[in-house]
Write a structure and sequence with these properties.
The complex is a heterodimer of chains A (396) and B (354). Chain A is an alpha/beta fold and 396 residues long. In chain A, 40% of the residues lie in helices and 18% in strands. Chain A has a domain of 157 residues: 3-Layer(aba) Sandwich (Peroxisomal Thiolase, Chain A, domain 1). The chains are: A alpha/beta (396), B mainly beta (354). At the A-B interface, helix 1 of A face loops of B. Chain B: One of its GO terms (molecular function) is peroxisome matrix targeting signal-2 binding.
Chain lengths: 396, 354
Amino acid sequence: MFVAQERLSQVSNHLSGGSKGGKQALLEKHPDDVVVTCALRTAITKGGKGGFKDTAAADLLHGALQALLQRSNVDPSLVQDIAVGAVLAPGGGATEFRAAALAAGFPVTTSTKSLNRQCSSGLQACVDIANAIKSGMIDVGIGAGAESMSQQYGPQAVTEFSELLEGHKLAAECKVPMGVLSEKMAKEKGIPRAAQDAFAASSFQKAVTDEEKTITVGRDDGVREGITAESLGKIRAAFAKDGSIHAGNASQISDGAAAVLLMKRSTAQRLGQPIIGKFVQASVVGVPPLLMGVGPAAAIPVVLEKTNLSKDDVDIWEINEAFASQCLYCVNELGIDVKKVNPKGGAIAFGHPLGVTGARQVSTLLTELRRTGQRVGVTSMCIGTGMGMAAVWVAE
Amino acid sequence: MLEFRTQGYNGYSVKYSPFFDSRIAVAASANFGLVGNGRVYVLGLTENGIVADKWFDTQDSLFDTAWSEAHENQLLTAGGDGSVKLFDITLAEFPVQSWQEHGREVFAVHWNLVSKDTFLSSSWDGTVKIWSPNAPASLTTLPTHSCTYSAAFSPHSPSILSCVSSDSHLRIFDLRTPASASNHLTLSIPIHTPPKPRMGAAASVGIPPAEALTHDWNKYRETILATAGVDRVIRTFDIRAPGAGPIAVLPGHEYAVRRISWSPHLSDILLSASYDMTCRVWTDGSAMGVGSVQQENMLDDPMVHGGGREMGRMGRHTEFVTGVDWCMFGAEGWCASTGWDERVLVWDCRAIMQ
């Protein structure tokens, strides 16, 4: 049967376009590509004391959607669905997000949903919309994220575990706080505090020179100037006496919103929308709950294999900095060039509004790829309860 | 349209006899050529439709066939087991000769049209071999180092031959050149070269290489060849200007193109067969104006990026179409096609041309 197998693959190569695949094929433009014509975010501000501390998540979303309509100039009645990633809002925020979309100027015919895959909700929202476009269910959609950690962060965000769940070892581990388990993981994987602090400091330093435009007036107020590894070295560890994780090398609690306008290339060309990038492929992979920080290291190889890319083909990596320890671990584990990781700083410097991050990364990534004339980018993040998600994007 | 069913065998190649207008050979394979027997049919076109005059069964799949130019009853087959066989239809059952040299599937056989004592074969093993029906072993082996789907002698010269392979190159060999390190290779043209940018046309961006599956020599313009393959595009090249890129580019097929054939009657007409289940007739545009490559930056060259166009299509096949050939006799335009739908169709392409 060996010969038959070979002949079959030869014929299927004829049909699939053969050795195509890899970077060159990725850069090709096809009418059925799902493309991004506008991606933006609000400023991201500090939870509890920042500029948006009294602004509801839905109001942040309203701001982002309104700005998206304004900047893209797309006819709102053509947008058929809006997916909003949100983690903390009770009921997923389904009601108020629909209301926010209507208030932002979308007609009643534009549907809205909210979804929650923890820290990757924003990316999941974009991927859901992209897949709905690919399958033909909708033509134009928006992937978004909105989060007010100021107003909705707290113990009420998780329901009490039942006895059944408490009695199951792996299940019970799902509610171990992120800080605690990341501390354990840092120790287990041997990521020293000095390395974490250096990584965190560089995130701040890169973010200070941030040139990315923000739309809702205001600036990212979590970014502090003059942070160095030494200055971070003085902060007391937060989760264990002899620990390594502290406020300066973990992501900040933040408020913000982001939105990404997606459609087929053929639609964009018909509507005269400027194409800034395209969505290629995404992956999601589970990992042990206690090692949730390794998520990107698990998800990224999968998406690279799906797209037939090598890690050297990727120009910029946006890997969410939930904690310096886990991000650094993933970078080392994947063997990627740390200089290509989060060139504009990450969640340590300007914050991690949970449901927003995935959509925020798209705008950060495409802006930077376009600014530097590079093409291929990957966004990825670890996900609470033990998962990783990654997506490949191409700037145009 | 006449029809013949190759029951249980999926067609791979069809060829009109160069001696009789009513005789057609069809190479076919069981199980889509993946595993199992092969069969070559000799079909007769009669008043009662198409009848099978004769067939030969082989152990492994058959992917191509070619009539002898020297003997009206003999034909070659290209076997999945690497064998090239010569059958005589006046004899029963067995081939008169079988050559077993290729290491992998043989995908093309072609008889020399000028000096009729040689023929060639090309294989997935990355070689083209030249043979004589009287010699027990091949005369010459020409390496391509790449799965070679199609090879053919020039219809204008006894010693020039060409092939296309999965590395996206068109190679020209001249057997008169010394057998030095280049093994008679005289030209190697990258098929994916973009057409030369000219005024008034947007410059092409890089085109990725794609497997070339088929090619053919123009029967009238002796330096013109057409190629096609996985990237769905038919291109014509002038081997006098190998660096100039394609002269005509004919996009249109929705899947890989499996076979192309220039008309024996008209210098600008091509027939193609594709995985998109259609056969299409094309003009390369050369009959509309000036015939060959012009100076650069001439706007009135009708063949810039084509000038050619699709003139019609035949969509009666219900599976991949793998073979197509013109009838050399009688009214211009009769042709035969075969495919994985176990059917041979004989039709007049003037009926579909616009």
